UniProtKB/TrEMBL annotation, chain B:
Origin species: Brassica napus (Rape)
SUPFAM superfamilies, alphabetized: Cytochrome c (SSF46626), Cytochrome c1 subunit of cytochrome bc1 complex (Ubiquinol-cytochrome c reductase), transmembrane anchor (SSF81496)
Subcellular location(s) per record: Mitochondrion inner membrane
Coiled coil (residue ranges): none
Pfam families assigned to the protein according to its UniProt record, in alphabetical order: Cytochrom_C1
InterPro entries listed in its UniProt record: Cyt_c-like_dom, Cyt_c-like_dom_sf, Cyt_c1, Cyt_c1_TM_anchor_C
Signal peptide per UniProt: 1-19
Protein name: Cytochrome c domain-containing protein
Ranges of residues in domain Cytochrome c: 55-211
Family the entry assigns: Belongs to the cytochrome c family.
Domain of life: Eukaryota
Keywords assigned: Electron transport, Heme, Iron, Membrane, Metal-binding, Mitochondrion, Mitochondrion inner membrane, Respiratory chain, Signal, Transmembrane, Transmembrane helix, Transport
Amino acid sequence: MRFGEIELQHLGFIHHLAISQRRLRSFLSNFTMADVEVVDPKKCLEESCKPKCVKPLLEYQACVKRVQGDESGHKHCTGQYFDYWQCVDKCVGPKLFAELK
Amino acid sequence: MWTLVLLVAFALLGAGVTGLLSFSTVASADEAEHGLACPDYPWPHDGILSSYDHASIRRGHQVYQQVCASCHSMSLISYRDLVGVAYTEEEAKAMAAEIEVVDGPNDEGEMFTRPGKLSDRLPQPYANESAARFANGGAYPPDLSLITKARHNGQNYVFALLTGYRDPPAGISIREGLHYNPYFPGGAIAMPKMLNDEAVEYEDGVPATEAQMGKDVVSFLSWAAEPEMEERKLMGFKWIFLLSLALLQAAYYRRLKWSVLKSRKLVLDVVN
């Protein structure tokens, strides 16, 4: 089939359109990637897991209040702190890697 | 004789009691002593037939090189080990050529420096342990070549440690020069928090969040400690399959040979 002049012009136009579309997309992606703030997914998940671990969190906060008045320097809340973070870790652990590449 | 038996019995009882007493003092020790137990993360290479994520190993090596290599050596890994795992031969050669290595003696009997080759080990940040301790306030940054095998639940522990820097609980104060990390036994670690968002720019464009860098560097360290893992899993699968066929064959053969004896009949009869 012989391409006439008009058909050739049409093909050229479509070819140009394709190129400019590609350029536009890559330009936009550069723009949006630079704009997006990286948020650490682990911190995000730890925040979202806080409601599940309210009980140990309240225990820890109660301990903090008890320790605040302490002058001897021997009192600390490691136990409650560990209980809380163990709960958060158990919640975050299975979900975290789904957010990462 | 009976007094001897009684004496021995009392001695054993005494030993048992002191043993129990020592157990009870250990149990009442601070739970920070063992560190917070780390959770189990679902590593992509955990499955019985799963391989490493090699893109992750490549990124992890970049993190190691830019963040960790200033203090931690990996003296058991050579540049050639990276070829085919994380880099092409040309890339690895180019990386090796960036370092200076002491070689020699030459024909004149002198040591000289030359650019690195594939066969050279990864460079060490300090000449020896004393230099390392001196530069880090008395603490020795351990060599990372086998770290995921050298710590209990190594992969999960290292990831939890690197991403687990937090404020200490109320009542705990850490001295100047140390940092609080609940996963570290005792809670006070000399290494500061090294992984911060966007500390590294990945060449494949993956966003370098703290968790991402942690995952990648632990993938790299897992590979470094167990480079044979993929081959081992393939071999394991192959041999377990073949040996189970052999087991079936052996079972059949045994029952075939024993069938003669197992199917014999003994008849008790009177002699007339």
